[in-house]
Specification:
Radius of gyration: 30 Å
Order of helices and strands: EHEEHEEEEEHEHHHHH
Shape: elongated
Number of helices: 8
Subcellular location: Cell membrane
Protein name: FtsX-like permease family protein
Pfam family, one: FtsX
Strand order of the largest sheet: 2-3-7-4-6-5
Keywords: Cell membrane, Membrane, Transmembrane, Transmembrane helix
Main location: membrane
Length: about 300
């Protein structure tokens, strides 16, 4: 994998020692579907590709022979249009008008570009500094070191596994950010609910704490007892939450297995561990402070008030 700019990627296919090279130039694009009052425009990404090279680099994407001239293909992240539709395309200040969708590649579970464009459709000055990535394959018998030296002058070189790992990390970071935003409001309400429940439960047990102290428990022992109880309740809540999430995990495994042939599940463990730690800290600190406050009056006065 060679990452650079579209200008630098020109001529990569002619580098001695390469059996194949498939360059994909990425560009932001404004897409419009529908017409009149039903017209809808949104922003996405497009790849400018060589159809034949793209098919070799991406097995299973055959059927792009019609992608030439003023036409587009639905990419792996296409949504809202398919083969036979027309879609308005604008890249930068260049309005390409409404173009027919003449082909499509299989949708990817991880998304991707919405459109695939043939070379020559977008003016070169619009793509001069656009980012590009080129999948290269060494020819049999080629000296890898010599070819790598030439490619290093074009852009950043990564092994395919390294590039996939970096792409996975970037997508995971985006997914985690979205997840945090979605969870934010719900988490705030849950935080308020948990604090209220712990405070009310501990405050209502003043006389129970007093009875325990009257039978020989120290104030510290009562507070530790409440802390242990809150930890047990928190553990049960987390286990029930994990059980509820297990259904989603099973659905993810089934879906990825059906789409890619390999069951895949990526759990954001740092986020999960931070949530678990935060839950124990929240209930532990709240129960400790509340029980310490509830045991401040003397046990004799509380028991006398009970009589």
């Amino acid at each position: 994998m060679v990452e650079g700019t579209s200008r630098a990627a020109v001529g990569l296919a002619g580098v001695p020692g390469l059996a194949a090279a498939s360059t994909e130039i990425e560009a932001p694009v404004a897409l419009t579907t529908g017409s009149g009052e039903m017209a809808y425009t949104w922003y996405s990404s497009a790849l400018i590709i060589d159809p034949a090279a793209y098919e070799r680099a991406h097995p299973g994407s055959a059927g792009l022979t019609a992608l030439r001239g003023k036409a587009v293909a639905a990419g792996p992240g296409a949504d809202g249009f398919s083969v036979g539709d027309t879609v308005g395309v604008r890249i930068g200040d260049v309005d390409l008008g409404r173009l027919p969708v003449v082909a499509a590649v299989p949708s990817a579970i991880g998304g991707g570009a919405s459109l695939l464009l043939p070379p020559g459709l977008v003016p070169e000055d619009q793509l001069a500094e656009a980012p590009s990535r080129t999948f290269v394959t060494l020819a049999p018998g080629a000296e890898a070191e010599a070819v790598t030296t030439v490619l290093a002058g074009v852009g950043t070189i990564r092994g395919l596994d390294d590039w996939l790992a970096a792409d996975d990390a970037a997508r995971r970071a985006t997914s985690t950010g979205v997840l945090l935003m979605v969870m934010g409001l719900g988490g705030l309400y849950a935080l308020i609910g948990v604090v209220n429940s712990v405070v009310i439960a501990s405050a209502a047990r003043r006389r129970e704490f007093a009875a325990g102290r009257a039978t020989g428990l120290t104030r510290g022992q009562v507070v530790r007892m409440v802390l242990v109880e809150s930890s047990i309740v928190t553990t049960i809540g987390l286990l029930l939450g994990a059980l509820a999430a297990a259904g989603t995990y099973v659905a993810v495994l089934v879906t990825t297995s059906a789409v890619t042939g390999v069951a895949t599940l990526s759990v954001p463990w740092p986020l999960v561990l931070s949530m678990v730690t935060g839950a124990f800290l929240l209930t532990g600190v709240t129960s400790t402070l509340t029980s310490w406050s509830a045991t401040r009056p003397s046990s004799v006065s509380l028991l006398a008030a009970r009589e």
